[in-house]
Amino acid sequence: MPTVFRSGPYRFFFYASDRDEPYHIHVERDDKVAKYWLDPIRLQNIGGFNRFELKQLRSIITEKEEFFMEAWNEYFSR
After folding, report:
1. Which residue range is the domain that position 65 belongs to?
2. Which alpha helices (H) appear in 1-78, and where do they start and end?
3. Contacts of the segment 28-35: beta carbons below 8 A, 24+ positions apart
């Protein structure tokens, strides 16, 4: 589970087994894990986060979308 980015209490990552899925990023804080598709950005799994946090997470993901997609390509092209 490579960590791609951290912002405050949030860890953004993907699983090594995600190779065959479309671009996406998982976000973890404590015992909560959400999943967002990246192209286009949309929430796939709430993972226990509240609406306020989901809005914050979407904002971060929108800002870092290109970075996450580049990290995905770099990791999975190995």
Report:
1. 3-76
2. 51-76
3. 29/53
- 8-state DSSP, 20: G
Each residue's pLDDT expressed in tens, for the chain with a length of 78 residues: 789 999 999 999 999 999 899 999 999 999 999 999 999 999 999 999 999 999 999 999 999 999 999 999 999 986
Tokens coding 66: 């290109």
Residue 42: count of CB within 10 angstroms of its CB: 10
Number of domains in the chain: 1
Residue (of 34, 37, 28) closest to 68 by Cα position: 37
Distances (CA, A) of 73 to 2, 18, 54, 77: 13, 12, 25, 6
